[in-house]
């Protein structure tokens, strides 16, 4: 499900008719993160796993691929500038944004939080939500998480309705709804993680239906070969987005945590899951080169979309195996060595 959600985001950014609701996959990612982090760390936190250790692990998990995405996007941006493309920020704005962006912090000099790699705003807010989880949410009863969800929805829902879409959060003026959007799904995922857990997760047709359900909801079947123009901002689209965020994603996450996909789909499902974060982190850098073939060279749009996804998956696989995993191992070894030498205070 996570891999399909990442594919939907990448396709939406490349050519929105290929996955017209791909942007609401972001809310599924937030819910999944809340669920996974609660299950993985809550008991360890109660056993003394502190805030510093928790946040260090979150940065180690997110930063290597975030950094790779920023480097690739910066190279592509300067390449586009050299070719005379005026659809990219000026070199001055890029250079002024890079010091903060490379630290996973929003740019103070542009309207976009991360002007070179626009989707990176979600990673910044995921770090914010992670910090709030370890400082606040781990200490709250279930009712406290329900109140966070309610407050976040109270902020988010009117903005989405007024905007006529939930595709919002990447700009400075949208920071409040971006935070609300993050915290609603993040807290909801934590609530689902606190429900009784099944002893077994049966694999079979239910798991296959869940994969079909999230692919269908994100619009992965819409527009492939149809060439249909789909509006992205209407009252009906806003209602659909809110239905996904408020109802469908929690239901799919709950069921997905209780069933597995069939054995026949296990290998491709595992692959998509393993490369999903890398795909999210690097796909923005590959968009414009393949758009050139679609818009300037006149290639078939469907063929360009297929080639784009194939290249994005290949780059993501190489990034995970040859860069992300070794980088994270090195970071963890360095942190362990530093603690052993007394350079890093124990968490």
UniProtKB/TrEMBL annotation:
Any Pfam family hit: Acyl_transf_3
Keyword Lipid biosynthesis: no
PANTHER family: ACETYLTRANSFERASE, PUTATIVE (AFU_ORTHOLOGUE AFUA_4G08520)-RELATED
Record keywords: Acyltransferase, Membrane, Transferase, Transmembrane, Transmembrane helix
Organism this protein belongs to: Novosphingobium colocasiae
Chain segments annotated as coiled-coil in the UniProt record: none
Membrane-spanning residues: 24-41, 62-83, 112-136, 143-163, 175-193, 205-231, 237-257, 269-287, 299-320
Superkingdom as given in the UniProt entry: Bacteria
GO MF term list: acyltransferase activity, transferring groups other than amino-acyl groups
Name assigned to this protein: Acyltransferase
Domain Acyltransferase: 1-319
